[in-house]
What we know:
Keywords: Signal. This protein is mostly beta strands. It has one helix spanning 2-15; strands at residues 29-42, 51-52, 54-66, 71-86, 93-108, 113-133, 136-141, 148-158, 164-173, 186-197.
Amino acid sequence: MRKVVMAITACVFFLQTPVMAQDGEREPGFGLRGGVSFFNWGGQDISSTGYTNRTGFHAGIYGNSFVGERFSVEPGIYYAVKGTQNDDLVNSRAVLNYLDAPLLFRLYATDAVNLFFGPQASLLLDSSFEADALGNTYDWETDTISDFDAAVVVGLGYNPSSGLNFQVGYDFGLVPVFKDSDADVFNRGFKVAVGISF
Length: 198
């Protein structure tokens, strides 16, 4: 719990520290964003059959500060549900809840259309495995998942001046999912989101 509080405090402080805009073009701001996620486990040690995308969601807050006319910096903090599922007899699945802290750099091709990329640090909040059998859902907590994750985030955004914005991104996980293991297994997935800037 202490780690979660420290991470939230650091991210809130970061969001409140604006990057100075040049030429007075656009003022720093913040916003709310959320959407649907489609995550799976990737890596050489994952079988090509059986594992499929698990649908989850993410929601949080971000700050956005322009550095020049076509470039902005966007830190954020999000609650994100990830994991994977297997189309076996009991529809087994892993449910992983994270606190994601991306730092995105946006390059604007037009006043609204932009490409974004950047690093993301994630703190595991809780993890469990679930299965369905005899009309019931059974779940059990696990401590085999790494407490920390890191990823590279890339995507395409549409941020018009109205404040409403849309984006599609991909998280390319870099830290193995399982701790104390040499297994080549990573969190990988797409996020589709809508946000509003203030």
